[in-house]
Amino acid sequence: MKSFDRRLQKDLFPKTPAAFRETVSRSIGSVCGQAAPSDNTVVRFPTTENDAKPARKKTNLFTRIGTVAVAAVLVISLLAVGTIAVLARRTTTNPAASANEQPESTGENVVVSDPTEPPKASAEPETVNTVYAATADEFLAAIAPDTEIILTRETYNLTTASDYGADGGQYYTWKAVEDGYELVLHDLDNFRLIGSENTQILTDPRDAAVIRVGNCTDITFMNFTAGHKLLPYVLCSGPVLELSDCTNTRIENCGLFGCGRVGVSASGCSGLSVVGCDIYECSNEGIDLFECRNVVIDACKLRDCGLRKLSDDVEPYGASDMVFIGECEHIIISDCDVYGNKACSVIGCAGSKDVILYGMLVYDNTLDDVISIEDAEMTVFGCEFRHSGDFLYKTSYPYTILDQFGNEIGETELREMQLERDPYAS
User: Cα–Cα 20 to 30 A to 383, which of 32, 168, 271, 346?
Assistant: First the structure.
């Protein structure tokens, strides 16, 4: 039964008989132009013959008043019966409500809700279809909105799918690249892909993303490892996970490895979370963000990137930046470990604002510098950078680096900074 305002019922049906009589009395008085007799009024009739004529006049007066009173009572009774019928019809939509209805409050402006009705949520309850997939074909066939796919086997090589390179399905396609095809998920809402500790998703083409995602909302990738099938002395130009124009994407507890050019590449995305991931052996970058907003990278490892060789006689080229942030806003990188990499910088930041680094531990890397910054605003605190070489690479473009108190800091403060994994704790 819907919630309804009990004030109307209280006005029409006072709680006590006395109050009800008082209401009727007021109604009669308004009709007759005078106050109606109360319960304690004594009506005296004439007792002498001389008083007979006045008594008849008084009697006629009281008769008229009584008639009007009876008529008023009948009118009010009819109104009451009609109101009760209306309320009864409302109540029949939930017969159990009357038995559980809360007691009426004596205060004003009180709305009494049906206690049998659950609280209304802001949106409809989430309904997810769970599918268990043991092969690449079963995984592809299950791709749809409002779907959770559980990967039950260890290895899924997308190149072995029966429709590889064909038209695909309603929510996925195969996009041609130089040396093969890449899987593209598109137009999905509320989609989850969940593996286990030993689950691997692989692809063979070097130029293909393992999984590309476009124009999707509320996407979760969890508990699997993904990368390109390893070949000696081969570098990849395709990323592992590539996101474009997506909202609310979560990548959690995943291993993303090379020879993928980059572990996570995102452009035009909002609400991206990369949590508890191990990103390793990528050839160019760990994470690449361009024109993204509201991104959190938390408790991740970025390691052993930029080390792949084209031959035993050639030194590895090295990666660019372990995390690149270009033209982004509201980016947080927290509690991450960066080690064992050969790269130009740990953080490359250009044209971005409201970038926060805290709780980062950087050690055992071969770096040109730790932070490369131009035309950007960055807050850094609670980090530890174990690097003896050049620290900041900066251009003629303006930049600002602050601590958590809003004080501007430079290379000296960054070198002396000590690790604090939970800098917000009191």
Answer: 271
Closest C-alpha to 336, from 419, 221, 411, 402: 419
CB 250 within 8 A of CB 220: yes
Count of helix runs (H) and strand runs (E) in the chain: 6, 33
Give the model's pLDDT for residue 236.
Answer: 73
With b for 16 or more beta-carbon neighbours within 10 A and e for fewer, the 116-149 pattern comes to: eeeeeeeeeeeeeeeeebeebebbbbbbbbebbb
The string of pLDDT tens digits covering residues 44-98 is 334 444 444 444 444 454 445 555 555 555 556 655 555 555 455 544 444 444 4
Segment 260-277, tens digit of pLDDT: 789 999 999 999 999 999
Q: Provide, rounded to the nearest whole percent, the portion of the chain with pLDDT above 90.
A: 57
**Quick one: which of 333, 359, 365, 350 has its CA closest to 395?**
350
Under the phi-then-psi rule, with left for phi > 0, alpha for psi from -120 to 50, and beta for the rest, what region is 233? left
In whole angstroms, give the CA distance from residue 151 to residue 224.
9
Read off the tokens for 86. 């209306």
| Backbone phi and psi for residue 353, each to the nearest 5 degrees, phi listed first | -140, 160
Whole-number Å distance between alpha carbons of 246 and 144: 16
CB 162 within 8 A of CB 137: yes
Q: What is the DSSP letter of 408?
A: B
The Cα 332–Cα 233 span in angstroms is: 35
pTM: 0.70
CATH class of the domain at 129-416: mainly beta
Residue 50 tokens read as 């001389």
Length in residues, the chain: 426
Domain map (residue ranges) of the chain = 4-112, 129-416
Q: Give 169: exposed, middle or buried? Use CB within 10 Å, 0-12, 13-18, 19+.
A: middle
Structure tokens at 227: 């990368």
- C-alpha span between 259 and 261 (Å, rounded): 6
Distance CA 174, CA 178 (A): 13
3-state secondary structure of 355: strand
β-pairing, 211-214 with 180-186?
A: parallel
Q: In 10 A of CB 346, how many CB atoms?
A: 26
| Alpha carbon distance 123, 418 (integer Å) | 45
73 SS3 class: helix
Query: DSSP letters of 274-289?
Result: EES-EEES-SSEEEEE
Q: What's phi and psi for 252, nearest 5 deg?
A: -130, 135
What is the identity of the amino acid at 222?
Answer: M
